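Appendix C: a fully annotated inverse folding record. The material below is reproduced so that readers can follow the format used throughout the book. The structure is listed first as tokens, followed by the designed sequence.
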């Protein structure tokens, strides 16, 4: 039955306007399904009554098969109408909820919920819709596996399954009603910080800038920042020592990064870079990012990401591109062209030593005021 286009979620419940009209349509459809089925039944039974003579009946195979195919067509069209109705009632069009292996918890999650007091006069909405990543539809089996759990019980030990879904674009995840387990004690020391200790405070190469130098470029006006693909949160930890709040975005790829970042007293944001950042426009004084910005090495992915980073950065705010690895001259040119299209002022721009055509680019760029 139909394909479904899930509302692309932004991590929170979403709202949708409806009207009394849609429930009237549903009733009408229910009526038409019932009547067509009754008609099919009647066609079948009236024929068996009128052709009670066994000889006549068995001789006219073509008549019987005609009736049979009519009935089959009716059943088929009723099923299609029912699926259509289910879609309308649930409000989702891209996840095929009529598949046999879709678990009830997923259907319940996706069900629209009417506001108890009717239409909200301020927003004009009448119901709440849960958001789930539209790409979840591409992994229905993983999704059903993920949504098979006991409500109010401990969540299954399957965080890697959730992350697998996220990396397939299934974000936000629909699981809500189980209790996260307590994992061992906190995670300080569970990742090796050996090589991280001196980052941002000691220079190793000409591509490394010091946090104090970069903060100095903004005359002390930096209060809040965002670190993209920030690994273990070292950047945020160094900035916290300077009274700057930094949110670190990281997935748990290859280690419990979120827990580790949180254990250092800084804010972990568990979100893939395909997601639009859950921040309003113009909120950060600083955005810091490195080669992790180069999502899958695809220029168009990086462009989408750059636009979103630009969006959350304040006018006059700094974009610190830190040791962005360019595997070739073409890559470097591509990146330079992309950056220049945003019209940022280059406060620092350092291209590292070239080795086999590979080079690192570091820059501090200032977002212009646009009116
Ligand atoms: C079978 O039914 C068809 C359609 O009603 C009719 O045209 C045909 O003459 C019948 N054949 C026999 C052998 O009864
Ligand atoms: C951070 O803030 C505290 C409390 O306001 C202040 O005592 C300290 O000097 C500040 N540190 C820096 C590096 O600005
Ligand atoms: C280039 O940057 C990567 C991280 O993006 C880093 O691992 C590497 O050491 C850097 N290379 C040089 C020569 O600075």
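Designed amino acids, in order:
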């Amino acid at each position: 039955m139909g394909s479904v286009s899930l509302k692309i979620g932004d991590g929170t419940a979403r709202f949708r306007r409806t009207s009394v009209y849609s429930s009237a349509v549903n009733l009408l459809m229910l009526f038409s399904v019932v009547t067509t089925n009754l008609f099919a039944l009647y066609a079948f039974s009236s024929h068996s009554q009128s052709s009670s003579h066994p000889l006549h009946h068995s001789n006219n195979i073509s008549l019987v098969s005609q009736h049979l195919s009519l009935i089959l067509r009716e059943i088929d069209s009723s099923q299609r109408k029912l699926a259509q109705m289910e879609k309308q009632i649930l409000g989702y069009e891209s996840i095929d909820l009529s598949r046999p292996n879709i678990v009830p918890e997923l259907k319940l999650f996706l069900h629209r919920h009417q506001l108890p007091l009717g239409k909200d006069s301020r927003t004009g909405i009448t119901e709440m819709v849960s958001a789930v990543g539209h790409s979840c539809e591409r992994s229905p089996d993983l999704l059903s596996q993920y949504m098979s759990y006991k409500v109010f019980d401990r969540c299954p030990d399957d965080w890697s399954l959730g992350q697998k879904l996220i990396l397939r674009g299934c974000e936000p995840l629909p699981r809500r009603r189980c209790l996260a387990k307590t994992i061992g004690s906190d995670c300080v020391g569970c990742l090796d910080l050996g090589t991280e200790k001196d980052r941002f405070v000691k220079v190793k190469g000409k591509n490394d800038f010091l946090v104090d130098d970069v903060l100095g470029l903004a005359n002390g006006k930096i209060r809040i920042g965002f670190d993209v693909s920030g690994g273990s949160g070292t950047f945020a930890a160094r900035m916290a020592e300077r009274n700057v709040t930094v949110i670190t975005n990281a997935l748990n790829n290859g280690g419990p990064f979120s827990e580790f970042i949180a254990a250092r007293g800084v804010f972990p944001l568990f979100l893939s870079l395909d997601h639009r950042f859950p921040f309003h426009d113009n909120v950060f004084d600083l955005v810091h990012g490195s080669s992790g910005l180069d999502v899958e090495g695809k220029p168009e992915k990086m462009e989408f990401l750059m636009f979103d980073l630009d969006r959350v950065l304040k006018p006059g705010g700094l974009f610190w591109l830190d040791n962005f690895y360019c595997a070739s001259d073409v890559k470097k040119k591509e990146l330079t062209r992309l950056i220049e299209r945003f019209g940022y002022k280059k406060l620092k721009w350092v291209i590292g030593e070239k080795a086999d055509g590979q080079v690192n680019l570091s820059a501090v760029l200032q977002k212009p005021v646009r009116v």
